Amino acid sequence: MSSKERPTLGGTRIKTRKRNIAAPLDPAAFADAVVQIYLDNAGDLELVAKSIESADLNFSRYGDTFFEVVFTGGRTQPGTTKPDEGERHPYSIIDCEPTREIILPSVIYTQKILRRKPFLIKNLENVMRRFLQSLELFEENERKKLAIFTALAFSQKLSGLPPETVFQPLLKDNLVAKGIVLSFITDFFKEYLVDNSLDDLISILKRGKMEENLMDFFPSAKRSAEGFSEHFS
After folding, report:
1. Are the CB atoms for 139 and 183 separated by under 8 Å?
2. Which InterPro entries match (predicted)?
3. For position 25, what pLDDT does the model report?
4. Measured in Å, how far apart are the chain's first and last C-alpha atoms?
5. 3-state SS string for 130-156
C-alpha cells in the first residue's frame, strides 16, 4: 500500500457535513411584482388588496419593501427615502393629493392588508419610523401627506400601530430645530381632531409618552408657555 493511501473500513460511508444554503435575497424582484399588481389594477385599492392576498410572494421576508411600495410607489435605497432602481407606480401615498378624502382609502387598504397578514405590523412600524426620522428629505407637501396618513391611521385604529412608533422618532434635534417636527405634529393634530375629541388626542399622547413633553416638539426659540399658546391658539 502506498504511503499516500489512507486505510478505510470496508462498507463504511463517509459522511459529509451539510451546509444550510440560504435562498438569495431579491427585494427588487419582489418590489417589481407588487408594483405590477398596482399597475394591473390601475390603482384600485380594493382590487389591489385582493391580488395581494392571493399573490405568491414572500411578504414575511420583504415586508419593509412592501410598505416602501405602498408609501412611495417603489423601492427605496437601503436606510434612506431615495428611490432605488426598479419599477414604480403612481398610486402611492406620497404621489396623491394631501387631503383626507384621497388618503383615507390608503389607510383602509393598509388595515385590510394587516388583518390578513398581521405579522406585517412590525414592517409598517419599521418603515414609518425610518420615514419620520428622515422628514427633512421629503418635500413640505409630502410631509403633510405623511401627517394626514398617520392621523387617519390612529383615527381608524389601524391594527396594532403603537403611538411611540410615531412620536419618539420625531424627537431628533435637527428636525426639531428646523421646525419640521412642529409643522408635522400640527398637521397631525388638526387632522386627528376632525373625527376625535381632545381627550382622545391626550390618550394617544399618553400612550406615546408625550403628554408632558409637548414642548419638545418646539424649536428652542419658541419653547415657552407663550409660544405654545400662540401656536395652538
Report:
1. no
2. eIF5-mimic_regulator, HEAT_5MP1_2
3. 59
4. 98
5. HHHCCHHHCCHHHHHHHHHHHHHHHHC
Residue with cell 405590523: 121
Question: What single-letter amino acid sits at 139?
Answer: E
Position 34 scores a pLDDT of 95
Q: Is 50 left (phi over 0), alpha (psi -120 to 50) or beta?
A: alpha
pTM score of the predicted model: 0.85
Q: For 59-116, how does the pLDDT look when each residue is reduced to its tens digit (9 = 90+)?
A: 999 999 999 999 999 988 776 666 777 889 999 999 999 999 999 999 999 999 999 9
- φ and ψ of 76, to 5 deg: -105, 155
Q: At what angle do helices 140-155 and 180-195 cross, to 10 degrees?
A: 40
SS3 (DSSP) at 24: coil
How far is it, in rounded angstroms, from Cα 28 to Cα 128?
20
Instruction: Provide the residue count of the chain.
Output: 233
Q: Which residues of the chain have pLDDT under 70?
A: 1-25, 79-82
C-alpha–C-alpha distance, residues 204 and 92, integer Å: 27
Cell of 125: 412600524
Residue 66's closest CA among 12, 29, 15, 22?
29
Q: Where are the alpha helices (DSSP H) in 156-179?
A: 163-167, 173-177
Separation CA 219–CA 71 (nearest Å): 28
HSE-CB at 208 with a 13 A cutoff on CA atoms is: 22
The angle that helices 121-132 and 100-116 make with each other, rounded to 10 degrees, is: 140
CB atoms within 10 A of CB 48: 23
